[in-house]
Amino acid sequence: MRLFSSFLLLLLCMLNTQAQNLKSGGKLKPEQANLDIRHYTLSLEVDPAQQTINGFTEIDVNVLQPTSSLLFDLWHGFTISNVLVNGKSQKFSHTENDLINITMPQQLAAGKVKVKISYGGKPGVAARPPWEGGFQWSTDGKGNPWIAVSNQGEGGKTLFPCKDHPSDEPNEGADMMITVPKGLVVTGPGLLKKVTTKKAKSTYHWKTNYTISNYCILFNIGNYKVAKRTYTTINGNKVPMEYYVLEENFNRAEKLLDLFEQSCRILEKYFGEYPWVKERIAATETPHLGMEHQTNIAYGNKYNYQQVGGKDFDWLLHHEFGHEWWANKVTNRDWAHMWIQEGICVFGDAMATRELDGEDAYRKRMQQTARSAQNRLPIVQGEEIDSDQVYQSDIYGKGAFFMHTLRYVMGDEIFFPTLKKLATDPQYTYDNTVTTTDVEQLFSKAHGVSLQPLFQLFLYTTNKLEVHVKQTGDNNYRVRLLNLDMALPMEIETDQGIQKVVVDKKGVEITSNSMIQVDPTVFYLKKVIIE
Q: Which of 231, 301, 421, 517 could form a disulfide with 316 if both were Cys (CB 3.0 to 4.6 A apart)?
């Protein structure tokens, strides 16, 4: 299980960031709650020699109620030169709290508004990308500029003016026009619409029409070549599959695309068709380890493949690609519910173990996951939580193990179709963000019995399931639950082998000539109290 142990060590670091002293989300400001973001357009020139960016961002927004004030987020290290609202220059302030407050002499009516903010400067440098995000100004093995942006914890405001909250994604997507020195290649989300070269500069126009998280609206720059093939999805759709790889590593590209296909087959089996069939499946080689950027994940695992079930497997590629379903398609409305996208994505990693190495290997992996649970803080600590506050390792491992518990409680015949419904139903995907309550109600309805007590115990507290065992006779034992008021299936190992019973607060009688063992295969995070 060294693969999973390494994975958890990585995840312990994720999002616990103080880079540029930034964080994303939290309590939504009233001025921003009044804004419904529809589209972002970024037009920026990147100067690798000076390590600067300059240009503008246009924000198409629906104003829900009349207002004379607009509020956006942008890192205070940038200098704003001009702000236009519907083509007219407006007064603004840009504070050290990374807020742009635009004040207008007359009230804006509710409806469509276009805001153009011109800005530039030296962006914040990532202290330890991708965990402490920002810009990474690097070079490849041949000395060419190699530039990456990562900002999940810090938010899109490290790159462009935005409403930096997970509850509001641009429903009509984003356009990016990024200008670089001629010879360099820019990769971004969606489809490459056009490359324009004039004199010593090239401008790459990337466009996505899908809803997209702020932290996925970014780019990578390098001396890239692209390896391509066509992938046929589980529903029969043909989708371009691309890998933008450093020229020096181009001989490795076909192997990585093979593993890309392998992971996509597994993920589609459990979670439904690849979410972005109208655009592409892609990865870009980066100088940092990797991130889940929509339609163009960042990959920097240096081709360190593992053997799982006798087959080559790249855990980083699979995990970041799994976020196309969990984070990019199914998105938490508030960082407080981040376990949904991170925990279920890690459960998807365990499904790869199941597919490549069998059910026993999957169960051993989940047993190791259970042993790694910290239980220092609840997975869900409340509402309106920012990205720094929510982060802890348990949103990954314990979140994944909770899905393992749900699978056991519900049974495969109900659990797996319900999980796929969460990943495919329009109620929970694309424009519609989710919370833990949404997930609980979906699974409870499918189960036919409320699972709310189970969700409450394992997600909203640090308590383990308490199971009381009392010997009532020479060969008799009574097993009951102490801190959960619902009936649960449970395995009990006796001298005759493992039997499956239903246990509740009233208890169940077990006969065995030897001491019984509760939940030997480990489907629950539990504390067994023997009297």
A: 301
